Amino acid sequence: MSNVNYEAAIEAILFTMGNSVELEQIADALELDKKKTKKIIENMMEQYKDDNRGIQIVELDGSYQMCTKTEMYEYLIRIAKQPKKRVLTDVLLETLSIIAYKQPVTRMEVEKIRGVSCGHAISRLIDYNLVCELGRLDAPGKPLLFGTTEEFLRSFGVNSIEDLPVLNPVQIEEFKQEAEEEMHVKMDI
């Protein structure tokens, strides 16, 4: 490998790892000795200083890390302050609906209704502050109970859970039939 390829490899390692990486680990990955690896990294550090770039490589007690230059923090803060767009996919909406109507409810109960694993969906809904942990069920294994938050009420424009729309029995039967038909189609495939 030429120096350019070593530099690219070091850059990839430091960027991907995110945290500091020991010189010895980098040298082993490049199949070089520590002295040559350190020289290449020091050369890269100088290049980053000279070039008008937003990143740098810093040495931390014999390890190296790629990070943002302090003069770029202003721009990062502007991005971080921008409100994050929440995207509620069909999976998230379905999971949220079950939790809203059945709360307090365990993950297993939600999964039984949906027929698939819901761990990721529930985690996302917690991240979005639409669902929270309400405690634990007094049963073997003490499973977590989930329910909706005040943010859920605000987001959907209802004052309380009692204000959620009531499904009429005809709609419920239609939904059950659709679900059964979907299951038959999936089983035929």
The class by helix and strand makeup works out as: alpha+beta
Rg from alpha-carbon coordinates: 26 Å
CATH overall fold name of the largest domain: Arc Repressor Mutant, subunit A
Strand order of the largest sheet: 1-3-2
Helix/strand order: HEHHEEHHEHHEEHH
Beta-strand segment tally = 6
- The CATH class of the largest domain is Mainly Alpha
Poorly predicted regions: none
Bulk shape? elongated
CATH architecture of the largest domain: Orthogonal Bundle
Q: Would you tell me the overall average pLDDT?
A: 87
* Separation of the first and last Cα atoms: 50 Å
Largest sheet: 3 strands, antiparallel
| Count of helical regions | 9
Indicate the percent of residues in helices: 55-70%
What's the structural domain tally? Answer: 2
Q: Strand content of the residues, in percent?
A: 5-15%
By CATH, the superfamily of the largest domain comes out as Winged helix-like DNA-binding domain superfamily/Winged helix DNA-binding domain
List the helices and strands and how they pair.
Blueprint: H1 3-17, E1 21-22, H2 23-30, H3 34-50, E2 55-60, E3 63-68, H4 73-81, H5 90-102, E4 105-106, H6 107-114, H7 119-127, E5 131-136, E6 144-148, H8 150-156, H9 169-188
Antiparallel strand pairs: 1-3, 2-3, 4-6, 5-6
Helix pairs in contact: 2-3, 5-7
Function: Participates in chromosomal partition during cell division. May act via the formation of a condensin-like complex containing Smc and ScpA that pull DNA away from mid-cell into both cell halves.
Keywords: Cell cycle, Cell division, Chromosome partition, Cytoplasm
Subcellular location: Cytoplasm
